[in-house]
TrEMBL record:
It is found in: Cell membrane. SMART domains: S_TKc. The keyword Calcium does not apply. This is non-specific serine/threonine protein kinase. Residues 34-51 have a biased composition (Basic and acidic residues). Residues 387-407 have a biased composition (Basic residues). One of its GO terms (molecular function) is ATP binding. It comes from the Eukaryota. Its EC number is 2.7.11.1. Residues 1-51, 357-407 are annotated as: Disordered. It catalyses: L-seryl-[protein] + ATP = O-phospho-L-seryl-[protein] + ADP + H(+); L-threonyl-[protein] + ATP = O-phospho-L-threonyl-[protein] + ADP + H(+). Residues 70-354 form the Protein kinase domain.
Amino acid sequence: MGNTCRKPVCHDSSPSLFGSTNTQSNIKQTSDSPDQKTDSKTSSSNDDKSISKDVKSFSFNDLKEATRNFRQENLIGEGGFGFVYKGWIDENTGAPTKPGNGIVVAIKKLKPESFQGHKEWLAEVNYLGQLHHENLVKLIGYCSEGKNRLLVYEFMQKGSLENHLFRKGVQPISWMTRISIAIGVARGLAFLHSLDANVIYRDLKASNILLDSDFNANLSDFGLARDGPTGDNTHVSTRIIGTHGYAAPEYVATGHLTLRSDVYSFGVVLLELLTGRRVVEDDRQVYTEETLVDWAMPFLSDSRRILRIMDTKLGGQYSKKGAQAAAALVLKCLNTDPKHRPTMVNVLAALEALHSSNSFPKKPKSGTDNHNSVPRTPKSGTENHHPTKHSSHHHLHKSIANTTRKH
């Protein structure tokens, strides 16, 4: 993993359930919470008491068999959390099956030395065990046996958004699909923020957005999620942890976490969708502290210059009006004053209005490609990703209220 921060940092990246290791540096400071190291016997005995009954408990041996003893050939992702393997289980009983039988699942196995330890593992089980929405990845089950900590998810056929935006050799995703993905992400965040006990996702980035066979977006990896402020509280004070370039500046500076912190991260992701460029430089031989936001801001502030930063892989297949509207939304989400950022409900409404407008797609006139002169940017970088994913064929335009949270 590349270290893109000048200050020393600890890495706390978790893998896409169906992609490869993240390349962004993660910001992590000393925690004001108790030490994450927990006695395995004590934590294991307490896990089942707090985990939702809707989530199936798997034995370690069953998951070992489902992945063929965690064979290297079934490895589909790796990161700070641990390893992600492809496995096969019976759809009704959950029993391990032979490859090609039953359903395909993604099995995430925690490394004992992982920064994202038992506390984050349990947070992910509890959040995804209680929250159900078409734009959140489905947690099928877990394993808490001795020192073993595993999670079992639906398999996402198209892999992570990171794969499709930045991996060389992958078919570029269209402008309309990009906006649809943004809508799915916005809908997932709007759902989390609109709960009576709202939830701050805190780790939005391209590698945590998973795509099913229809390119519907699903938020994954809830290990860093936190309950939002309650009562008269305006923020949650917490350790500073996240990915460089995605984390809101006021959160990095103070540790004060709010719902608008997620809005900033969404603005960064939307900017990646527009430009097709990574949030940080990924060339290990070229050091830079400049982020995509730093580079793009002068262009975002001038609607006449927006087309200069649009992803050249789009081949001009988008409307100028649509690009300018999306860029204006990015600018609002990236406001340095969190109070002036829109809510995710308002972001979602703006994206749906853009999607329903006649802003798709518009072919450039012959010989008038607006991308011949593209300004220098942080390099995109490449990495080996494994495109994968199970589908959850939901339409992106269902109400965010079509969800449940169990207490």
